[in-house]
Protein: Integrin beta
Organism: Amphiprion percula
Amino acid sequence: MCQQEEVCSKSVINSCTDCIRSGPYCAWCQQLNFTKAGEQESVRCDTQAQLMERGCIKEEIISPANNVTIIKEDPLSVSFDNQEPVQMSPQKINLKLRPGLPTTFRISFRRVEGYPVDLYYLMDLSNSMKDDLENVKELGRDLFAALKKITEHAQIGFGAFVDKTVLPYTNTNKEKLQRPCDESDQYCQAAFGYRHVLSMTAKENEFKKKVADQFISGNLDSPEGSLDAMMQAAVCGNKIGWRNSSTRLIVLTTDAGFHMAGDGKLAGILEPNDQQCHMENNLYTKSNEMDYPSVGQLATELEKNNIQPIFAVTKNVEDVYKVNFTFLSTHLSFHSSNNVVLLKVIFNFMFFQELSKMIPKSEVGVLSSDSKNVVQLIETAYNSLSSKVTVTHDNLPDNVRVVYTPICKYAGPAGDKNGVCDNVHVAQTISFDVTVTADSCMEDTSFTIRPLGIKDTLTVTLSTKCECQCKDPNDKMHQLCTNRGSIVCGICSCMESFIGQNCECSIGNKDEQSLRASCQRNNGTECEGRGDCVCGRCQCHSTNQGGRYRGDFCECDDEHCENYQNKLCGGNGKCDCGTCKCNAGYEGSACQCKASREGCLTKGNTVCNGRGRCICNRCECKEGYQRPQCLICLGCPDPCQTKLDCIECLGFGSGPFGKICDTNCRNITYDMVDNFAISGKECHQKDSEGCWITFKLNQLVGEDNYEVEILKQRDCPEPPSVIPIIAGSIAGVAVIGIVLLMLIKMLIYMKDLKEFRKFENEKKKSKWAEADNPLFQNATTTVANPTFTGE
């Protein structure tokens, strides 16, 4: 009952290939003479059950099935013996799928006993981790002892990080760069971003010595450059010393949050992280040139290199690596002065999920304030990681779907992203059913399936079956095709110049396109989709009820008329090309009524007043007229206006119809009267001569027939007197001219008066100074006698 029902949803089918591609359950019958005369070849396409029911032999049915071929299937290893172990099987598989039809295969996995472990201890050496560093220096023996419980093939490496050595992360004062710690600290190393201290080694003494040489450093802000350090540890595999066959672990110990992509803008670092190795002399050389990596970038590289991180963090920043509330408050307190960065931080927080969930195969553990419990934390995290087997895929092609169904005691739900089995013990074999579906045709392509954190992979090569492999007769000219063509998947493939179901039509000099055009009505579908165009004429198909389509274009059938009481044409007529032809005594679109006119007769014994048809004993009125008897027309134009020209013409011999009155007004009978004697609509209209005509209209039987009475006397107003009008106009113009001249004269006088008064005022204000003109000479000359002495 839970199995999917097999349905063939076919559309346009012209060949076996079209059929196979139309749906996963469509099959093609290649049996000769399977189709009947007039049937389309598309009837060969249906589900296998339907074809067999129609008489197709099972051996003649083409329905490609999925094929699964295992190319490489090495057996699973039990324990590690210094050779490449096999933990997943098979390793290579080929799939040939039919589009839309799913196929399922099984993969097996077994944890190898004693599988090597590479552990890289990555430690925060900022000033707040001073006491932790001292304890880690004494933990070498315990770390190795814990790993020996897991495997005899264990190695440990060591790295340290602080932050970028630029403002605002680190004090760039020359002295502070060399000694960023407090003055009370006797041992302090220069500021740095990330330093690789020790490559992978199995020697306990070497680990103790390298860690003992380390000292704390310092920076300014609380978040550290831990993502920078993890990225370099992941991509610089040769320098770290990761082995090809090992469980790779990065243990990050810190008591602070982390910077991520975008934070570098605070220091003017705009170049994004390129996810490449930039390590020289064991130092990350691009620390001050490239931005921090994003969590997504880091997760990609960790997954790509099969590295599983363990976040050993103190309680105060546990939420940074889980729910990230501390991450937000830390960033806000430091960057509150920069509004742009503030908005960015809030945006990142809103969409930032739990870090451990964003990075596959990772664990978070709470570190004590002095890191004394780090060994126990690592041991617990490793057991959690190694006992959880997650199978996923890489490079999945478009239009391909994969579903994983775990088969184990503690199985997770089936999913299209991955399959999960938990609490898997060493040497325990588990399985996953992998269901693959290709949704479209495609050439050879491939993708990989692998367990997270493990090197083993399964390569799946995929191709599709979209072509029919038919067993055709060898005859180039087959008798079924009138020796003018060959058989291809049960149907005729005709020679050039021949067409038709059996190649029976010779098109001669005509091209096939012109012949097919003659089978199309108004450039529509060929034979209305109800027949085949043979030699330029439509051969109509049979209908579903056993009848046949007919007409030049197969446009007619006698089965699709209106039904009444679930009977075609109410059982009272015959269907003729989509229209009911009623028997005598019946009418209606579905012959549903007995013929009767009683409900349509008027007082004058007319049917619907001549303005409609009586159908099913009811008036079907013409547009605008109202039931029950089509007497009133609410949507018609006012006849007082539409008939005015005829009234003026008939009654007074004037107007636009003066000379053609008999032709245009033949449906109107009229009388000239002194008083009205008929009932009807009274009209009062103005004619072409400006006179008012009064008349009455009474509509007779029919749509445009009227009886009219016209009053003999028109109301024509007297014409106006021309002489008084002209005289009055002249007098008015003269008066207006005189008034304008007086106004202009008054304005000029007022202006002159104003200027004169201004002159008088200025004259009164002037003061004349009394002085002699130096050019003036008196006309009187006085001469003195030089000899006169006055005596």
About this structure: Residues 598-633 form a domain with the Laminin fold (CATH 2.10.25.10). The two ends are 176 Å apart (CA to CA). The longest helix spans residues 722-765.
